[in-house]
Amino acid sequence: MSLPPSLRTSVTPTELELIATQQLIEIIPLIAMEKTAFISGAYGPLRPPHRAKIPIWMAVNLKLKKKCHILPPYWLNVEFLQARLNEETSEAGFSRLPFRFAEVAKVLLDVAPDDIQDTEKIRSILKDLREARQAKSREGLANLDRGEFSLPNFCSLEINEVRPFFVRSMAILQQLYREPSDAV
Fold it and tell me: Which CATH architecture has domain 13-183?
């Protein structure tokens, strides 16, 4: 649902995906292209079959035109994600994942499923990982107080999800704990 900026309390997931596409990723180009300058920087030259690092947005554009193969990041595989899921379900804290893993994974799985092995298994693990992390964040928010609130290894999407609740909760807690002399 699209809301006017005055009513939105956080960034939308689509906007987070757009931000995440600024990250660099490796590709194997299928076309030759000279170094090209963009506002965000100059990328290239692209020479098949040599790998090149370009922003995800550019890789997506080339992939949709069938002009490259995208090499998935080191963490976008069944073994790595399964290990993080096991860690997530067996330990108290959040497992260490790339800050924008959810957004990057969604973009790459949507655009380049043929370049990634076991996409359905990865999607399933990512869903389970997300549910486990959401359960931990709900548990953490249930124990919210005026003291320090620390959630190490939280990713950008998770921060964005709890931001509206957290901001409102902290405002209410501030009012509740306000000293009587402050109320006057």
Answer: 3-Layer(aba) Sandwich (3.40)
